[in-house]
Amino acid sequence: MRIPIIAGNWKMNTTVSEAVKLVGDMRPLLDPVNNVEKVVCPPFISLTAVKEALKGGSIKLGAQNMYFEEKGAFTGEVSPLMLAGLCEYVILGHSERRQYFGETNEIINKKVLAALKANLKPILCVGESLAQYDAGQTEAVVTDHVTGSLKDIPASASLIIAYEPVWAIGTGKAATSEQANKIIGIVRKVVAKMYGDSFAQSLRILYGGSVTADNIAELMKQPEIDGGLVGGASLKGDAFTSIVKQTAQVNK
Ligand code: PEP
Fold this sequence. Notes:
By secondary structure, the protein is an alpha/beta fold. 42% of the residues lie in helices and 15% in strands. It has a domain at 65-226: TIM Barrel, CATH 3.20.20.70. Helix 1 (16-30) runs parallel beside helix 2 and helix 5 (105-117) packs across helix 7. Helix 2 links the parallel strand 2 (37-41) and strand 3. An eight-stranded parallel β-barrel has the order 1-2-3-4-5-6-7-8, surrounded by six helices. The protein binds phosphoenolpyruvate (PEP). Residues 9, 164, 169-170, 208-211, 229-233 line the site of phosphoenolpyruvate.
């Protein structure tokens, strides 16, 4: 049994006070929801205030990125040691990091290893671009992302993978639930080849890309899909609440 997880990636949105207000609005609706793990990932500068605002409840906290070094002359960066104790999860290798900030599998792999060393749980993002999708390269790209980014991790590592086709992120054009299920099945097979079947079967793999309150139920019915990484809809309290509640109701 893999417990489903819904994680909200707020990206570069919300001031500190807006972030605190958003989780304050969500808490009464989401704290009582069981059977699904709920995570919000606000910008770095809001982590402390949001952690405080979530105290005593059941919503967990994640960061959106981190650097792989522990400390030193890396102006503007945030280290695993700074995040440890502040949040439980960290999104790594998001396609926006790969696309705009030049992150390669090699860099992402260093980040995954550094996060695990600091007892942070990585949410590793993988997924193909539109051009790669059109060229029929989806399987090759996700295989490359998974093998490159998860090199040399312990087979007991606590982590999550999110399959996010780039063409579905922020476009309103989600993958069909069958498509997402098929690619997530492939991701699971790649992990099984690297770290064995039992690790792969216990690993939660999410779908991300234009997840909404209208498509989450269909996605969650699929056997391979263990939850969602939600961007735009995670900034709207009512939409995010509905996504979480629908996820909690799906029995597989
Ligand atoms: C994301 O950024 O991880 C994402 C899935 O965004 P959206 O839900 O807005 O497509």
